[in-house]
Amino acid sequence: MDRDCLANKLVREVLAGIAAGEHAAGSQLPSERALSEQYQVSRGTVRHALAIVERLGVIERRQGCGAFVKKLPSRAIPSRYFPREFTTVSLDDILCVRMAIELTAIELACDRISAATLGKLTAIVDRMESEIDDLPAFLKDDMAFHEMIICSSGNGPLITAFEAVREHHHFAHVFAHRYVGDEFAAFEQHRRILQALRRRDAKAAVETLQRHLESLTSGKSQKKGAEDFFKTERGSAQHRLATTG
Fold it and tell me: CA–CA separation, 152 vs 113, rounded Å?
């Protein structure tokens, strides 16, 4: 992968982290060395990515001090910094794919999940209860919970299919949660999913997970926030094409 592609991917990670609240306005981003180690890219790629984020008006780099967050990402982020084909994909599209992958995965996981993995899921749900007022930590464990269930299915193609949409899922997830959400309800849904997995009750697990995913599609305020963000960029791109074509 060339440096520009790696830099764009890091740009997405930084923007998503700011949108999710991991880096508040006025706070300092991790150092270039820390970002290089975290994302396994060169220091040059990190500098290139931070220069892009600075041009977007999101951060300010201070000589000898580091990079500091100025504000949340603009709604006019150029489409080249989204995941591939992201501007043609709706939140409903992503949730539809998740439904297809995760419902099958959890049915398989009811037979195949290990006691050790159930213990890890229990620890995640316990943390989520304590993270209801800590959105970045809550979102991180939310994603980890779903990914662990998919991996527990033991089905290679399902795991590969999820990996193919993982970046779309992550980017949509954090921008959707910039708006109204109900973390307590989400925690309760995850707790009930875990209970069904512990009982190895495939029917209950599938039904509970399906209700959880459907609640994401029916969360009008949250969904509208994400869709408005994406549609604004699509509209901007279409306008640029219309005026330059």
Answer: 5
Range scoring the smallest mean pLDDT among 175-189, 199-213, 225-239: 225-239
Q: Which class in CATH covers the domain with range 86-232?
A: mainly alpha
For residue 203, the tally of other CB atoms under 10 A from its CB is 10
Amino acid letter for position 93: D
The alpha carbons of the chain give a radius of gyration, in whole angstroms, of 19
Q: How far is Cα 49 from Cα 52, in angstroms, rounded to an integer?
A: 5
CATH code for residues 3-74: 1.10.10.10
For 126-160, how does the pLDDT look when each residue is reduced to its tens digit (9 = 90+)?
Answer: 999 999 888 778 888 998 999 999 999 999 999 99
Per-residue pLDDT tens digits for 34-75 = 999 998 999 999 999 999 999 888 899 998 899 999 876 555
Helices (H) then strands (E): counts for the chain: 10, 2
Whole-angstrom distance, CA of residue 8 vs CA of residue 218: 32
- Token reading at 59: 């951060």
C-alpha 66/C-alpha 63 separation (Å) is 7
Find out whether 8 and 51 touch, Cβ atoms under 8 Å.
Answer: no
Write down the domain spans for the chain: 3-74, 86-232
User: Comparing 3-74 with 86-232, is the CATH topology the same?
Assistant: no
- Strand, helix or coil for residue 68: strand
Q: Does the reported pTM lie above 0.85?
A: no
